Amino acid sequence: MGNFKLTTVEEFEAATARLLETGAKVGADAWQFRVKNQTPHCKFGETGVCCKICAMGPCRITPKAPKGICGCDVHGIVGRNYLKFTAGGSATHSDHGREICHTLYESAADGNYKVKDPEKLLRIAKEWGVETEGKDIYDLAHEIAEMGMMEYGKPFGTQRFLKRAPKHTQEIWEREEIAPRAIDREVSCSLHMAHMGCSSKPEALIRQSFRAGLSDGWGGSMMGTEFSDVLFGTPKPVDTEANLGVMEVENVNIVVHGHDPSLSEMICEYADDPELIAYAKSKGAKGITVSGVCCTSNEVAMRRGIPMAGNFLQQENVVLTGACEAIVVDVQCIFPALGPLSKCFHTKFITTSPIAQMPDSEFIRFNAHTAGENAKAIVKAAIDNFENRNPDLIYIPDMKQKATVGYSVEAIVKVLDGVTNSQVDETGTTKPLLECITSGVLRGAVAMVGCNNPKIRPDLAHIELMKKLIANDIVVIASGCAAQAAAKAGLMDKAAKDICGAGLKRVCELADIPPVLHMGSCVDISRMMILASELAKDSGLNISQLPVVGCAPEWMSEKAVSIGNYVVSTGIDTFLGVDPYVSGSSEVAELLTSGVREWVEAAYTVEKDIDKLVDAMIDRIEEKRAALGI
Ligand code: CUV
């Protein structure tokens, strides 16, 4: 089995324990302590039966009080809460996509942002019916960006990217009336439906939850991904490293955290500037290290090989190393705790977006016009902070793994080309991958996504599930914090082929890939939708017939529910390890885990036991294979 060794969750935990000792010295708080104060959680909230959408309440449903004051029953309350939760996630992802549209709109040959992948821009223009002949690439970028922004508020029609789905899927969306219209409309309509005195029928509420989710996955998120590729380049395989050990004690450490690559790309650019590197040296550092946390880390890892310091529940750890000069954030998944925590150390906590403003942070407002100066000021502030370190508080766990990342759909198609030695000679299609699946060399694929959640021992579910799947010849495609868990453990090291089943091992060797493929950030789950669509089109099957499932074992955010809704609505069975606050309504729970299959040919499974969860996924994949006779 060679010398390959995974890093275990026990080792992660030992490193965290050591960092919390540093925290104790300076009186730092941490999520591990706050969780204790919040446990046990409120049962009404946890089961979704608390309603506070009007001021007659809050109403809480119990056997003695089965209706709210307005007469709404538990199913209406749980359904409305679920819809509002989805709308929060869809709004958030989609607004991120909108920011990227604006960045594209600001791109210029001599500006802060350039078009790095003009071919992709031309492809999208053709797809959207825009004349490209003889047009300046930046004129085209602005035209497409504006059309993208119109997708948010257009009065008629549905999302342009829906046409990328197989015909059958598009027909389902039309038939079930869940084809998403303007993105902002779906979010507004969701809030409208969940207002006092509007919808209380679970079926209507879940249908709109799906529509709002689809406006994210096939609308806002897909534009976020595609236009980020146009601006910053479509990812291709690149080597990097993951876990806290990527921070370097002799260097100025800048940690980027959040989601929008418009900020992190610019920080990386300036951290590479010879003038600023020389300045860092003049201050006694050997150089500048940028590393990342959460999805912004995935973005810059996929495109630049920037190392990943950690995922969601590790964000406080980077400050606890005592060696972080600045943690620079944009939007989403940022603990407000970082403000007070940084105050216990020399770390600068720099917020940059009007959307995410927090106490105890330094606010350097970032925008496309001034992005260069802003990024330079941030990098310089971090360098100036190097001398303020307290040497007694410095401890960086010596723990990191190698990872190869950057598997966009384009990259996957390319690396798998020629893996099979059969007659399949079509290049640029998913046919080689399909052949691996139909021949049984690969049994199927799992899209492993989502966050960490203290309800699950951090990273354990991600890692254990992935280990078992790859041992069973199931390739894993990962994004978000699930991907970072894999990278930290070593599952994105090509050497991890040694712990795969014989079939997957062979594919990894032939294609020179790791068994867990990093597909990017959460908005990049839209890439997974494209891959599933291409597989369906190239095989002549429906998406729901493919031996492919989705899984979010440790999810926590509203965005994850929006994602789950569009993945299920696209025909992919989705397995959750955390309940989305619906257990209080038998009707809503039944719909989500079974009833919706009649609408969209897929449904949710919620299973908190990791062993049962992975077995359920493998069983589902094998059932799908059996139904196809492969
Ligand atoms: Ni957007 S949404 S904790 S960073 S995956 Fe990570 Fe991914 Fe969840 Fe947030």
Automatic annotation (TrEMBL):
[4Fe-4S] cluster 2 binds at residues 51, 54, 59, 70. One of its GO terms (biological process) is generation of precursor metabolites and energy. It comes from the Bacteria. It catalyses: CO + 2 oxidized [2Fe-2S]-[ferredoxin] + H2O = 2 reduced [2Fe-2S]-[ferredoxin] + CO2 + 2 H(+). Pfam families: Prismane. [4Fe-4S] cluster 1 binds at residues 42, 50. [Ni-4Fe-4S] cluster binds at residues 259, 295, 333, 451, 481, 522. Gene3D superfamilies: 1.20.1270.30, 3.40.50.2030. Signal peptide: none annotated. GO terms for molecular function: 4 iron, 4 sulfur cluster binding; anaerobic carbon-monoxide dehydrogenase activity; hydroxylamine reductase activity; nickel cation binding; peroxidase activity. Its cofactor is [4Fe-4S] cluster. The keyword Kinase does not apply. InterPro entries: CO_DH_a-bundle, CODH, HCP/CODH, Prismane-like_a/b-sand, Prismane-like_sf. Its EC number is 1.2.7.4. Keywords: 4Fe-4S, Iron, Iron-sulfur, Metal-binding, Nickel, Oxidoreductase. It is an enzyme of class 1 (oxidoreductase). This is Carbon monoxide dehydrogenase.
